[in-house]
Specification:
This protein is of the alpha/beta class. The strands form two sheets. The protein has a two-stranded parallel sheet. It has a two-stranded parallel ribbon with strand order 3-4. α3 crosses α4. α4 (about 85-95) links the parallel β3 (about 80-85) and β4 (about 100-105). It has helices spanning about 1-10, 30-40, 60-75, 85-95, 125-160, and strands at about 15-20, 50-55, 80-85, 100-105. The longest helix is centred in the C-terminal third of the chain and has 33 residues, at about 125-160.
């Protein structure tokens, strides 16, 4: 979200849109969008330049909510999409399916300065590596699910309901 604020301050974007990302298992009362909006305002961004979505739980809902909001405002379909580099490929496709012209702005790159495979410690399992494997598996599952939903939807549109 800080990259989005920076882009706004550099006049690369006319407004900010924060999505109300949350998890159904969360105990927090505020969603990400509300927290980001509060922080942006504390950094001097006008509240009129910021929009948020309702609470959402996945990227597909983010794209739909932003499409709905921008349709109500008769706003442009050109967006700068700020999200994790790891997640950008899937997010970009979902926003494009909502009719957006997406200019990707990836952040939060997952690289390591120490990529030496010569150290024997690199071969010993640890909790951080398990965490990275979990993130990768979640992203791959998301890509597969969204790809399947898109194919089913297109098949239904092209061929009608199954008889």
């Amino acid at each position: 979200y800080l990259a989005g604020i920076s882009l706004y301050k550099k006049k690369k974007a006319p407004r900010l849109f924060f999505t109300g990302g949350t998890t159904p298992y969360s105990v927090f009362s505020k969603d990400e969008g509300t927290l980001y909006k509060e922080h942006a305002v504390s950094l001097g961004i006008s509240i009129d330049a910021i929009s948020t979505t309702n609470k959402i739980v996945n990227t597909s809902q983010e794209a739909l909510e932003i499409r709905r909001n921008l349709n109500q405002e008769n706003s442009s379909s050109k967006i700068i999409l700020v999200t994790s580099a790891f997640h950008m490929q899937r997010a970009k496709k979902l926003f494009e399916r909502q009719g957006f012209l997406v200019h990707p702005f990836p952040v939060d790159f997952k690289t390591s300065k120490n990529s030496s495979w010569q150290s024997p410690y690199k071969w010993i399992p640890n909790s951080y590596s398990l965490h990275l494997s979990s993130q990768a598996l979640r992203e791959l599952m998301g890509r597969s699910i969204y790809r399947s939903w898109y194919r089913i939807k297109n098949n239904f549109i092209n061929n009608g309901p199954l008889s």
